[in-house]
Amino acid sequence: MFTLIWSQLRRRAWRAGALFAAVLLATTGFTVLTGTISTSRLEVVSEVDANFRGAYDILVRPRGARTATEVERELVAPNQLAGTYGGITMDQYRTIQELHDVEVAAPIATLGTTMVVDWVPVDITDLVDRSKTRQLIRLDPVFLADRGLSRSTRVSHYVYLTQRPLIAMESAGTGVLRFRDGTVLKEDQDCHLYPLEVAEDGTKRRLCGAGVVHTAGSQITDDKAPGFTVFRLLPDGRFVQGSNTGGGGLRMQDFPAQERLLVGMPWLTTAGMAAIDPEPEARLLGLDQAVVSGRYLRPGDASSGRDGRLLPALTARQPQIDETLSVTASAVDETLARSLPGTAAGDLHHRLGSARVTGLGTVRLDAQPLRPDVVNGVPSIATGVLVHNAPPRYERSPDDTLRPAAWTPQPEQWTDNFRFGVGGWSGFIFDTAFRAATPAGAADARLLIDPVGVFDPQRLAEFSQLSRVPLETYQAPGAAGADARSRELLGDRPLAPSSNPQGYLAPSPQIILTLDALPSIVGPQRARDAISAVRVRVANVRTLDELTRERIRRIAEEIGLATGLDVDITVGSSLQPQAVDLAAGTLGRPELRLTEWWSRKGVAVAVMDAVDRKSVLLFGLILVVCVLFLANATTAAVRDRRRELAVLACVGWPRRRLAALVTGEVALVGLAAGLASAAVSFPLGWAAGVATTRPQALLAIPVALLLALLASIVPAIQAARAHPGTALAPLVSPVRRARRSLLGHTVFAASLRNTRRRPGRTLLAAAAVALGVGAFTALLTLTWVFHGSITGNLLGDAVSLRVRAVDTIAVASTLVLAVAALADVLYLNVRERAAELATLQAGGWSDGALARLVAYEGLLVGAAGAITGASAGLLFVDRLVGGVPPAALAATVAAALGGTALAGLAALLPASSVRRLRLAALLAQE
């Protein structure tokens, strides 16, 4: 039998070659694709395991803390904790701590924002004219925020500089002022407590500059705005201050002489405050290792001092706001400066309003970190009353952009809580409001902060940037420009928070206290449930396998059942860009389009599940298409040899031997193709960037043999069961009785009837096309869907870059096999119906009409398969990602049209073979 098999293969070398090529293509593609899938799978797992974990695994918040936007979009906005105040009790926190498998439970109480006043030294030494005896310099401060787009002007400040001696005040009382040289004057409220100046003729004249009130062009309406600061230029070129900014009567010797002329100006800024449990915070984020000066917080650090309001705290090394102080200096008319001593405050105010000034220059200072000052003899930081800021409320635009609701601020409802006697409040409270703000305490409930240590947020424990959770307490928020106009306005820098308590971006806490200090801040009653969130880290989490995910889910469920709080699994979260349209501000900032990084929870789990299902599907898809192609090719070979098999049956060959003959021929071709596939797997794998191992290459041999045997089963059985007399009958296709058709006797109608003459063969070709187009539809749609919902975040991008090559190879292989299967079916139809086509040609049909007949058959079969495959691909995507965006329908239509076009191309070769039919020979055979 082997001799007969070998002779048949040699006699029909073209058919054997076709079978060999088919098995070689399918097996080699399968082997290389298997290696690619395995490699990608390892890389995906490695990438996820390296980047799935952020600072914590579970976030516990008060019940109802999820915003409407978070629920709707399954996203979490940055700095959500900035709008969450209390709601978790100390008992609930301890319950979470005691749960099994909870490695760290770190609570945080977001206390709100407060105003802090700082005195910044403005150096105007280089602007002084040392040749003048007296000079008056006007300083016009402007505070800039939002990368310089927002401007808040402050009341002008005047510096009077004289080279004449100054006599400080000794005491004041009972309406009488006594000076150090014994001079006694009647108290003048307009002149406050400023010194005397000794004129050139020895007379002593009063300086009354402190009584000037100048509010033009300022948002400041405080009638206690600062007036003048008096300095003396000493003969040795140094400077000494003769009065403090507020006009107090401190003696000159209390102000040491300095080389530089430094004018202190008040800078009121916003500072966020939060309370932590020091030990868990150190274990979770390494906050203790981020302390750069002083000491770390200790458990039990609570209020101290005489009034019980001196609170130990950590302060941030860097400022958490983006603000700049720009001071423009101008020289006031010299005549006015010379006549200033002895001029009444009212007259001086009137004359300053119309005085000529000459510009001297501008001094700029950036925001500085919080610095302690001496308050009641103790170095501390004085703060205003805490204010709670609610989260922004968003409106959704048709293009999926979010627009935070904006309204005109009403600071008069709570400005008294921020008011200082040193110059009012920050001008940025008058900017556009995006958050509701309410005072958290009484107007006199101010705090003194004892900065025991300074921490650097940049030194916190490192976490993967791909899985960074944007709910961190120590990360300053930012929003980059989303279009060219916004980026240009922002100077290619991200928008950052300002001192507007109702601003869109809330600054991260700059003052960190302990939970033990809460009773002194919010009162004993409110301190019981002042925790805003608990961040949980699960023990023994190293990889994101199925068991680990189930453990994390179980712990999250236990927390929810035990506490009744809102629990979110943040392990595997990643950042996703979100477009935000920010309305224009009232202080000059125009409307901006921004990009923020919002958090999508559980992305790593979704990606791994999706990759698992997609890899299994592609693996099975290649095998199915291979079997369909080989079955069709083997069927064609068997039908081509029906006469020969019939002769063997007539001479006594049993059915099992006929089946073995067909199976042996196909198995021999499959074995040869498997050996060739094993040989070429190495260079093809190297070209594809896949490290093909020897076991993978040798696997091609049994796979090729198995596929060939499976594909030969049905054709071999058909050959063995055929009756010898039937087998010797002419090889023609049955013709069904024609029915009336709306299409009549057109070429298209004939092709439609022909597709129904052999439904099994037509369904096989349509199934092959459907599988190829289905894979192509899934590739197009998944690319779009992953980019929009999964690959739009950082972790999704890292995974998809390694999976996309597998998708491309699988789809390309499937399409090639599907087109080849359709072409083979059409070619087999042409061979079997050769006599029929010759008869039609004899009856007057042209070569073009016959070619169109075959081409239409290919298009009909291809269109049916393409529509079915496109629908199946869309259904697969829907099952994979849980929904199909409307834009994916366009990709589905494109895939269906592309599959139909490929079917038309596959029909070209069989259609062109009609022209080579020999009319006379075919008719003679009939």
UniProtKB/TrEMBL annotation:
The keyword Repeat does not apply. The chain crosses the membrane at residues 616-638, 658-685, 697-717, 763-786, 806-828, 849-876, 888-909. Pfam families: FtsX (PF02687). It is found in: Cell membrane. Residues 617-724, 809-916 form the ABC3 transporter permease C-terminal domain. Keywords: Cell membrane, Membrane, Transmembrane, Transmembrane helix. This is FtsX-like permease family protein.
